[in-house]
Amino acid sequence: MRAAGIMAASAGALAAGAAVLLTDRAPYPSGQRRLLDVPLPLLTRRRLDALLQPRAGEHMLEIGPGTGLQSLHVAPQLGVGGQLSIVDVQEQMLAHVLGRAEERSIANITAHQADARALPFTDAQFDAAYLVTVLGEIPGRLAAMTELRRVLKPGGRLVVGEFADRHHVTLATLVRLANDAGLHLVRRSGVPLAYYAAFVPCPAG
Ligand SMILES: C[S@@+](CC[C@H](N)C(=O)[O-])C[C@H]1O[C@@H](n2cnc3c(N)ncnc32)[C@H](O)[C@@H]1O
Q: CB of 134 closer than 6 A to ligand 1?
């Protein structure tokens, strides 16, 4: 009886998550942010780690953290000498992540309310950057990819996660955008409708 209740609740949560993920609204409504805590199939944190490879002492950038599903997992891996900078257009999302980080005694996250198309950072500042189910919400995706390329160190890395929602960016489109921004694909995992893709800056020349 108890198991049936748990299954029904899980199915309900998944259905609600799926319904919201199919919304047309962008940026993702902060009032529905709790549903972002429902992990998406295949876009697991373990798969993100495998491509992003966070290391102690690194300075990393996350665009569009939402409720911090990835931030609260990545930041501790950067250690006290490392830092995770999170950027979101919605102040409520940033405040939510910082609140959850404080509850967990995670002190190496800094928040910046900004648009991915105009990042408030100097050139070549970050060891790595990532964004999960965000790119499709950004009008002017090439501008965002160009900004990400600008703030990455020459040996830096970028991981993009995409899921089959209304804002889905196909891998082919992503690779084209990345190439136009001066990045090239080095690895990917998942399936076409739920994938992570890793890029590095193209050599100057
Ligand atoms: C669907 S949520 C994804 C949240 C989280 N990455 C996850 O996987 O649960 C998209 C996030 O991107 C943010 N966002 C949308 N457009 C943005 C932009 N132009 N610049 C920065 N953040 C943006 C939204 O506010 C929201 O927090």
A: yes
CATH number at residue 169: 3.40.50.150
| Within a domain: 150 | yes
Cα(204) to centroid(ligand 1), Å = 30
As for how many domains the chain has, the answer is 1
For 114, counting Cβ atoms within 10 Å of its Cβ (0-12 exposed, 13-18 middle, 19+ buried), the class is middle
In a domain, 14, yes or no: no
Ligand 1 neighbour 133 (Cβ under 6 A): yes
Does residue 16 lie within any of the structural domains? no
Q: Give the tens place of pLDDT for each residue, 187-198.
A: 999 999 999 999
For residue range 73-83, list pLDDT tens digits in order. 999 999 999 99
145, part of any domain: yes
For residue 93, the enclosing domain spans 40-201
- The b/e string for 142-154 (b: 16+ C-beta within 10 A; e otherwise) is ebbbbbbbbbbee
Q: Per-residue pLDDT averaged across 102-109, rounded?
A: 98
